[in-house]
Amino acid sequence: MKNRRFITLLCTLGVTALCPIVLGQSATDGQGHYAIYVRGYWSGQGDATVTAGTVTITANVQISTGQTGTLVISNLPLAANHFSGTGTVMGVVVNVDGRVQAPDAKPGPNSQAVTTNAVLGATLLGGGHAARVAGGRDPLPPDP
């Protein structure tokens, strides 16, 4: 498909309706550790872990006033490549909706394929605020 790179970009940005159909991936293709970034009302960075059935995300975050805290999203069920549920950010309950996009199994026409990494993206909504979580799978597991 000539527009595969464009669709992959849309999937990375959170336009997920076409992702499972076009990219043809399974939930197990995205398993592993991810370095993630949080941007929006809350900003920071942290880690995510994707298993065959769950997604867990943690990060150190802050708001524009300088107040700091943590983002904790634990063991959300992973169905196909999507996950949703609730977590907390600095004590605020947030609704979480996201997906894991695994690398393509093989290069497509004109080598337009995502083959080096998997990406994780999610939207956080709570307390009248919003943020996005995005990151890529690490090539190696995190240090203990």
Order of helices and strands: HHEEEEEEEE
Which class of secondary structure composition applies to the elements?
Answer: mainly beta
Radius of gyration: 15 Å
Instruction: Provide the β-strand percentage band.
Output: over 45%
CATH class identity: Mainly Beta
Total domains: 1
General shape: globular
**Number of strand segments:** 8
Largest sheet strand order: 1-2-3-4-5-6-7-8
Give a quick account of the main beta sheet: strands, pairing sense, barrel closure.
8 strands, antiparallel, barrel
The fold-level CATH name is Lipocalin
The CATH architecture category equals: Beta Barrel
Estimate the mean pLDDT confidence. 79
Compute the separation of the termini in Å: 41 Å
Low-confidence stretches: 1-27
- The helix content, as a percent range, equals under 10%
| Tally of alpha and pi helices | 2
Features:
eight-stranded antiparallel β-barrel, disordered N terminus, 2 helices, 144 residues, 8 strands, mainly beta, globular, 10% helix, Lipocalin
Give an overview in words.
- There is one protein chain.
- This protein is mostly beta strands and 144 residues long.
- The protein has one domain: Beta Barrel (Lipocalin).
- The chain has helices at residues 4-12, 19-23, and strands at residues 32-40, 43-50, 54-62, 68-79, 82-89, 92-101, 119-126, 129-137.
- The chain has an 8-stranded antiparallel β-barrel with strand order 1-2-3-4-5-6-7-8.
- The chain is globular.
- Residues 1-27 have low confidence and may be disordered.
